[in-house]
Amino acid sequence: MSNSNENAVLDRLVRAEKLQLLYRQSFPAIFASLFTGVLICASLWSVQDHSRLLFWYGVLVFSAIARGVLFLGYWRASPEGEAILSWERPYFLTLLASSIIWGMGVLFILPPDSLLHQVIIFLFLVGMAGGALAVYSAHRAMTLATIGCILLPITVFFISQMALIPWLLVAGVGLFIVTVIKAGEVLSLALDRSFRLGHELEAARAAAEHKAHRDALTGLYNRRAFYELGKGMLAGRGKQMLAMIVSDLDHFKQVNDSWGHPAGDKVLQDVGQMYRSCLRNDDLCARLGGEEFGVLLLVDSLRQACSIAEDLRHCLENTRIDFDPEKLFVTASFGVATGNDDLDELFRNADAALYRAKTDGRNCVRFSHAVH
C-alpha cells in the first residue's frame, strides 16, 4: 500500500474515532438542551406570549427526539472502524438543526422591549456555546458550526439595535468567539494527534506481529506461527480430529543449480500461492523452512486428510511456473498424520510418512500408521 493510501486510511480511522467519541459523550447534551429551554421559557413567561414559548419549546423537543432516535440507532448498529463514518452525516445534520432552532428560535421568543431579558437570553446562549466547545471539541468543524448557529443570529440582532449596551455585548461575544476558535483549534489538534498516534502505534504493532508470524518470501505463516496457531486449532477442534500434511519439493536443489536462486524463489512463491488457493479458508498453511511446507487442518478421518493431500499433489504436478523464458514444473512428496494429543508427535508422524514418500519414488502421498 502506498503512503498516500496509508495516509487516507489513517485519516478515515481518525475521523471515525472522533465521531465515536462524539456519540459517546454528547448524548447528555440532548437533556441539557431541553433543561436550558425550560429555564429560558420560565425566564420569559411573564413577558412573552405563552403560546409562542410553548411552540418554540415543542420544536426543540421534536429535534431532541430526532437526535435521541439517531443515538439509539447508532447504539443498536454498533458500527466499528470506518463503518462509523456512515453515521457522520446524520449526526451533523441533526446537530445543525438543533443549533439553528436555538439560534433562530430565540429571536422568535425574544421580547423586543426588555433589554434585561434580552441580556439574560444572550447569556444563556453564550453558555450553550461554551458547552458546545466542551462537547464537540473532537470535531472542530462541528464545533464552529454549532457555535456560529447559536450566537450569530442574536449577534446580528444586537448590532441592528444601534445602542451602546447591545454593541458592548457584541464586542464581548466577538472576543468570546475568537477565544473559542483558538481553544477549539488547540483541543481538536491535540485529539487528532492523540488518535493518529494511537492508530500509528497499532499499525506498527500489527506490522511487527505480521512480520514475526509470516514468511517473508511466500507470505505464508512461518514455523513459529504454525505451532502457535496449531495449538489453538488443537484445543478448539471439537469432535473433529487434527491432521498435519508435510510436503517437500522434489529435487528442489536442481532448480537452484540450473536456473539460479531467483528461479527457486519464484517456485517457492508460486507453490505457496497454489497451496493457499487449493486449501479451505480455515486450513492453516505455513512454510516450515527451505522447500518444506506444512498444513494443519480439521478433518473427519485420515482418509479425508489423505484425499486433500492428494489434491494438493495433483494441483502442484499440473501447475506451470513461468520464469521467463522458462516454464518450470515441480512436484512434491507428502506425508500425512492425524492425532489429537500433541503437535510434536503429530509432526514426527507426518515427517516419517514424508520420508517414506521420498523413498517410494517421490511425487506421492504417504500416511502415518501410528495414529488413526
Keyphrases for this structure?
11% strand, elongated, 372 residues, two-stranded antiparallel sheet, five-stranded mixed sheet, alpha+beta
Task: Give an overview in words.
By secondary structure, the chain is α+β, with helices and mostly antiparallel strands. Helices cover 69% and strands 11% of the residues. Strand 4 (321-323) and strand 5 (326-328) form a beta hairpin. Helix 1 (3-25) packs across helix 7 and helix 5 (115-136) runs antiparallel to helix 6.
Overall body shape: elongated
Report the average pLDDT across residues. 86
* Radius of gyration from CA coordinates: 34 Å
Poorly predicted ranges (pLDDT <50, ≥5 residues)?
none
- The main sheet orders its strands as 2-3-1-6-7
How is the biggest beta sheet arranged?
5 strands, mixed
What class do helices, strands and sheet pairing give? alpha+beta
Strand content range: 5-15%
Number of helices: 12
SSE pattern, N- to C-terminal: HHHHHHHHEHHEEHEEEHE
Estimate percent helicity. Answer: 55-70%
